[in-house]
Each structure stands twice: as structure tokens, then as C-alpha cells.
Amino acid sequence: MQRVKDPALEQKLRDTRFEELQSRHAYRYLFHGCVAVTSVLALLLALFKEDWPGAVFLVLSAAGLTLVCTVSIYLSRRCAFEDMRAELPHDADYIPPDSLL
After folding, report:
1. What sections of the protein cross the membrane (predicted)?
2. What CA–CA distance (Å, rounded) separates 29 from 73?
3. CA-wise closest residue to 94 among 20, 80, 76
4. Which of 42, 45, 67, 101 has the most beta carbons within 10 angstroms of its beta carbon?
5. pTM
6. Residue 96 in domain
7. pLDDT in tens, the chain (101 residues)
């Protein structure tokens, strides 16, 4: 990244790039997580369809998707921060914004 003389503009450009990287990682983690949750639920449904009521599968799917969303936000933020540190010069300090996405 090329240095800009205006610190506020430079911070805004870094924040925009961070949000772009975070979104890219979040979409990937969300997709992989949803595929994993769907696969596990399909396996559980095939194995325990007769023994468990249908509401159990709905609760498990909601819990799985909540877990996937939480983990994907955490991992995407961490990976985006690592990518930003790799892109910036070594003497530049960067503090990411507080927003999640």
C-alpha cells in the first residue's frame, strides 16, 4: 500500500481494505461451515430419523448455524488482520475498526 500524506484518509483506506479482506474471509468460512453443518445434520437424520423427533433436528441446525456464524466472524477478523499486517510496511501500526462486518 502506498503511503498517503493525510492520516485520516490513510486510516479510512486501511479500514476499507480491512473490511474487504474480512468480508472475503467471512464468506468463505460461512460457506464451508454451512456445508459442514448440512452434512452432519444429513448424517444424523439418516441415522436417527426414527428415534428423534423432527424438532431436535431444527434445534441442532439452528445451533450449528449460530456456531458457524460466530466462528466465521472471529476467524475472518483474525485472518484479515494478518493479511493487513502483511500488506502494510513493517513500521506501520494498524488497529482494525471495532465493527464485526
Report:
1. 29-48, 54-75
2. 8
3. 80
4. 45
5. 0.78
6. no
7. 566 578 888 889 899 999 999 999 999 999 999 999 999 999 999 999 888 898 898 999 999 999 999 999 999 999 999 999 999 888 888 888 876 54
